[in-house]
Amino acid sequence: xxxxxxxxxxxxxxxxxxxxxxxxxxxxxxxxxxxxxxxxxxxxxxxxxxxxxxxxxxxxxxxxxxxxxxxxxxxxxxxxxxxxxxxxxxxxxxxxxxxxxxxxxxxxxxxxxxxxxxxxxxxxxxxxxxxxxxxxxxxxxxxxxxxxxxxxxxxxxxxxxxxxxxxxxxxxxxxxxxxxxxxxxxxxxxxxxxxxxxxxxxxxxxxxxxxxxxxxxxxxxxxxxxxxxxxxxxxxxxxxxxxxxxxxxxxxxxxxxxxxxxxxxxxxxxxxxxxxxxxxxxxxxxxxxxxxxxxxxxxxxxxxxxxxxxxxxxxxxxxxxxxxxxxxxxxxxxxxxxxxxxxxxxxxxxxxxxxxxxxxxxxxxxxxxxxxxxxxxxxxxxxxxxxxxxxxxxxxxxxxxxxxxxxxxxxxxxxxxxxxxxxxxxxxxxxxxxxxx
Length: 437
Fold this sequence. Notes:
Elements: H1 8-16, H2 25-34, H3 38-48, H4 55-61, E1 63-64, E2 67-68, H5 69-72, H6 79-88, H7 104-110, H8 114-122, H9 138-145, H10 148-156, H11 170-177, H12 180-188, H13 202-208, H14 212-220, H15 234-240, H16 244-252, H17 267-274, H18 277-283, H19 298-312, H20 315-334, H21 338-351, H22 356-368, H23 372-385, H24 390-402, H25 406-419, H26 424-436
Antiparallel strand pairs: 1-2
Helix pairs in contact: 2-3, 3-4, 7-8, 7-9, 9-10, 9-11, 10-12, 11-12, 11-13, 12-14, 13-14, 14-16, 15-16, 15-17, 16-18, 17-18, 17-19, 20-21, 21-22, 22-23, 22-24, 23-24, 24-25, 24-26, 25-26
């Protein structure tokens, strides 16, 4: 529980009880600052000044729970309190608290107080400041909390519209939260609609939230709808969520319905399982026939998918089918028939999409066929499932080497070698990556 979760006075009541007179003086002091009560700030500072340093010095130096008076003043954002603390006491407008690393202006942003934000920036606060934990800038904070007026103001003061943090870009954050008004503002200020964060772009973030309004704004702003990356395919996400309007919009924008997800399932198959008949009908004219489906029609696709689901509920069928597919895949791989091997691995993954060995093997197939991106996608999925499996990191490193991203390959292979230090194959590629980076 932190100061952003519970207003300070309420937090202090939880910690110290209802009777304010029994709170520690420092807590009462910070609560007075939170309320913007300059008279009470001075009064309590006088009680705290047992060594006679004077009220201004005591006001400047008094902290509680890592916060000083200027951090707490963001609670109500009363400008008289800011004027006293900054102009008379001379407190540092860029000093972070020790609890969350929030500066005074970051506290003002998180409390949604635009006048306080304006005042602090006018008095020297840095609009580009970032928390070291997570690289979170002021714009990220305003975007994640939905404060559109503060977003607009920060941009007018030169905030970096595409700043990257652990949360993503401000645009990705706004899209994930479904804040269409903020998405629109950021795009008007030339935010990059294709800048990925955590490997997912703003368009995928919007669809994750099922925000069709954000999705439309992003497409108008130039977002890539192609879905070339399996795990970041917007049409797949729309189909999985049954977002009929989004499917229509993506197809009109040129999205490719023949790009499968990580487990080899096309958007039309996902619509048959998760969406409606209408979704299947919309996708049908744009989708190339699937060879394993005998009856290529809307009814045939729906029946086929329903039959697959029923079969997956039969444990014996799944076990026998998986064994057969793995055997066919391995035989094809030994013959260096990588296209068919990858096809069999894909069919097996439809039955068990958590089989990391299948992902690892298919990643190698893609690599042998010269498709570094798909090899990387499978290796990344494999690594997420088994983060302590050396081969997953090795496969990712090999894919990155193929794509000539030697610095990232070195990092992946370093982790692989750390997990399996005696593996000569990993060690050889690791040294190669280190030389090339």
